[in-house]
Design a protein that fits this description.
Length: 421
């Protein structure tokens, strides 16, 4: 076990907890040479670094650290020191623990020693946390937060829609064909002003025009107000008056939740886009068809900018879950899609592939060939995404933008695609 030609004298394992951490160091022979419990604060981190220095930690051969999480202040500070940090799955640690005790005893100190021994024995089988730049790590935080906010918005929208189905069919009919539905500013503004169907039926044309303009509508407010006025005055089934008022109060509570998450989505999207556009990899990523600033930020957030993180394009594809996995035993051989993968990267991959069908003639032709070969829609998309990832790996390694001629040399005429206008 060496780093840059310098033998490693020790390996460190950290079993983390909320207010303290257990640290264990083992030498190259597997003998535990030190153990200590440190607090989860600056003083505890100073104790840890002092312990590592005592057992041979230096700039040429930093002692690697294994821990069961990839997040938190302790991990962030360890990464900032430049040492390799390995995030080991707790299930894997449990398997290693069983190698040393048939009694299956467990303690924090034992887990820390098991983590250290994992690095001593099987360090090459595990990947250290990537050495991403500070900007890339910030983009990761923002992009994941924005995606979480989008998922929260979907959940809040579904709760509100389920509530409105109980007593307010007119508002659902009014925005059934709108792009954002109940999430649109117009729907939320009108619903806040008229939380019950009885109140909506009493809205005048002038009041509806005012609400639409307050929601940001600049054109066609009069025509839209007339349409809404007609929809709200149709004949619908109603709850009992007092029950309807109570449901209206509950609707306002759900609406406030939806308003908050909608604002969060918009602000986080702006912050994510702004940070992504400052990154030097942004021009290369957005040169690919189907990748805009937001989807490009999500891709960068998951793959990072550490060029040594993935040894090959195949490693990146396996990480994203786009490459198939083969299970063979005896005469049985099954090729199937991967279940263990980066779920966020896989999610944005389908969006990327679907959008690319419109803007890339080569991508559309590739998708059509896969469909003609018998692939379903999802499988054909995944195959296209898999090919795009290989191109992205090549382009990022060399710092060159995407080129349609090189990517799909036998693509059909671009005239088959709609114009950007």
């Amino acid at each position: 076990m060496e780093t840059a030609g310098v033998p490693l004298l020790a390996f460190c394992g950290v079993d983390w907890a909320e207010d303290h951490h257990d640290v264990a160091l083992v030498d190259s022979d597997g003998k535990q040479v030190a153990k200590q419990r440190i607090s989860d604060d600056a003083a505890g981190f100073a104790q840890l670094t002092a312990l590592l220095i005592e057992y041979g930690d230096c700039a040429d051969a930093p002692i690697p650290v294994a821990i069961e999480t990839s997040r938190g202040l302790l991990v962030s500070c360890l990464r900032a020191t430049g040492r390799p940090v390995y995030a080991i799955n707790p299930l894997a640690v449990a398997r290693y623990r069983d190698r040393h005790s048939v009694a299956r005893k467990k303690s924090d100190a034992i887990d820390a020693a098991a983590l250290a021994n994992i690095l001593r024995v099987d360090r090459s089988a595990h990947r250290p946390l990537p050495a991403d730049s500070e900007l890339a790590q910030a983009i990761t935080v923002l992009a994941r937060a924005q995606q979480d906010a989008v998922w929260d918005r979907v959940q809040a929208h579904n709760k509100l829609r389920s509530q409105l189905r109980e007593f307010y069919p007119s508002i659902l009919a009014a925005f059934a064909d709108k792009r954002d539905g109940l999430c649109s500013p117009e729907a939320r503004t009108i619903l806040a002003s008229a939380p019950t169907p009885t109140l909506a039926a009493k809205l005048t044309l002038r009041r509806l025009q005012s609400l639409l303009r307050r929601a940001g509508r600049k054109r066609g407010a009069e025509a839209e107000a007339e349409r809404l006025h007609e929809v709200f005055r149709r004949e619908y089934l109603h709850q009992l008056p007092q029950v309807e008022v109570a449901l209206g109060q509950q609707t306002l509570a759900l609406l406030r939740q939806l308003d908050v998450v909608c604002v969060n989505v918009e602000r986080l999207e702006a912050a994510t886009t702004e940070a992504f556009q400052q990154h030097p990899d942004a021009p290369v990523i957005t040169s690919f068809p189907g990748l805009g600033a937001l989807t490009g930020a999500r891709v960068l957030a998951e793959i990072g900018d550490d060029r040594g993180r993935f040894a090959s394009a195949g490693a990146l594809k396996a990480y994203a879950g786009s490459a198939p996995v083969t299970r063979a035993s005896g005469k049985s051989c099954i090729v199937m899609s991967r279940k263990v993968k980066n779920q966020r990267l896989a999610a944005v991959g389908y969006v990327w592939a679907f959008s690319a069908l419109r803007w890339s003639a080569g991508a559309k032709s590739h998708y059509d060939r896969r469909r003609a070969a018998g692939d379903r829609h999802t499988a054909a998309q995944r195959h296209l995404y898999n090919r795009f990832l290989g191109m992205l790996f090549f382009c990022l390694q060399r710092g060159v933008p995407y080129d349609e001629e090189t990517a799909f040399p036998n693509r059909p005429s671009a005239e088959l695609l709609p114009s950007a206008a």
